[in-house]
Specification:
Blueprint: H1 10-22, H2 56-59, H3 64-67, E1 71-76, E2 79-80, E3 84-86, E4 93-94, H4 96-107, E5 111-116, H5 122-127, E6 133-134, H6 142-145, E7 148-163, E8 179-183, H7 187-201, E9 208-212, H8 215-223, E10 229-233, H9 234-243, E11 248-265, H10 271-285, H11 287-294
Parallel strand pairs: 1-5, 1-6, 8-9, 8-10
Antiparallel strand pairs: 2-3, 3-4, 7-10, 7-11
Length: about 300
């Protein structure tokens, strides 16, 4: 899920560094406090994000089972800065996905509530009606759209991050036998299985894979030399460079670029159309661009939102 450089304000970098070093304060058990989508300690020099107004036509497409309490409950793994992570208070969930999800909810006349979860538990939580949506840097894949609906809103790829200076001489093409970290449940966790098959076919040793529940723990494993490289979404890998005082660098260009999607349970009438319409409206009125600029991830912008793209 991609190497793009970006310059972050010092306050944001310091706040995120604290999160990385702490391993993410609120944990990944699904019980973390919800965030309102405010920027908290993550101030930015980008223009303020406008507050969307309700679109009555889109709101009418939201099922009563979702709208009855006035909330849109998102499951998210708040260990993936800058997309979703905890603020310096260790509880408030912030990030690009949070701001965008909050704006989508406002467009539908709802209040967003983000609940922290292990990444691998979000889609099962949606199927089990624990969450009404999932927004946690999910790449849209055929396997996922076979069981859930996904509304596209961003595009990202995979990047390889290593220690500064790349002491092991890694590249995305020579990882056989190397100690590589990934977050559980991600496309990168699936990728290492395929890579090991390729290594075996070449008569080379397999990757020594460290799979951890939180991306912040994977980054910490890299900076503490428990692994020599990590595979992560490109915005996340690029962000790790800024939040480790340059202890991490990205090697090579992003690959396997794919769209991110908001995850919804199947069989909910026009709910996917409501969410897709809300995302598209935010793209059209400039709110979407303002949010991406705030988090310095504008290179991942897409012009059109689709369902199960």
């Amino acid at each position: 899920m991609l190497a793009r450089t970006r310059s972050l304000p010092a306050a944001l970098a310091a706040a995120a560094l604290a999160v990385v070093l702490a391993g993410c304060g609120s944990g990944g058990d699904g019980s973390g406090a919800g965030g309102s989508g405010g920027s908290g300690g993550a101030a930015s020099s980008a223009p303020a994000v406008p507050t969307p107004t309700k679109d009555d036509a889109l709101a009418a497409k939201v099922p009563a089972s979702v709208s009855a309490d006035g909330k849109l409950v998102f499951g998210t793994d708040a260990s993936y800065p800058p997309n979703e992570f905890t603020d310096t208070d260790g509880r408030t969930i912030i990030g690009m996905d949070v701001d965008l999800g909050t704006a989508v909810a406002q467009k539908l006349g709802l209040q967003a509530e983000f609940q922290n979860s292990q990444f691998s538990g979000i889609i099962p939580g949606i199927d089990g009606a624990r969450y009404e949506a999932g927004m946690s840097s999910f790449s849209i894949t055929p396997d996922r759209t076979a069981t859930v609906d996904m509304v596209s809103y961003f595009t990202a790829g995979t990047s390889l991050a290593v220690k500064k200076g790349n002491p092991d001489g890694l590249s995305p093409d020579n990882l056989c036998g190397k100690a590589i970290g990934v977050q559980a449940g991600t496309t990168q966790a699936e990728e290492v299985t395929t890579r090991n098959q390729d290594c075996q076919a070449k008569g080379q040793p397999p990757l020594q894979v460290t799979e951890l529940q939180q991306q912040t723990d994977v980054t910490l494993a890299l900076t503490s030399s428990r692994i020599v490289g990590m595979l992560a979404d490109s915005p996340v890998a690029a962000y790790a460079v800024t939040t480790t005082n340059g202890a991490v660098e990205v090697v090579g260009a992003p690959y396997d670029t794919a769209p991110y999607g908001i995850v919804l349970k199947k069989g909910q009438g026009e709910f996917p159309q409501a969410v897709q319409g809300a995302v598209q409206a935010l793209m059209d009125d400039g709110t979407y661009k303002a949010i991406l600029d705030k988090w310095n991830v504008g290179n991942g912008a897409i012009p059109t939102s689709q369902i199960n793209a």
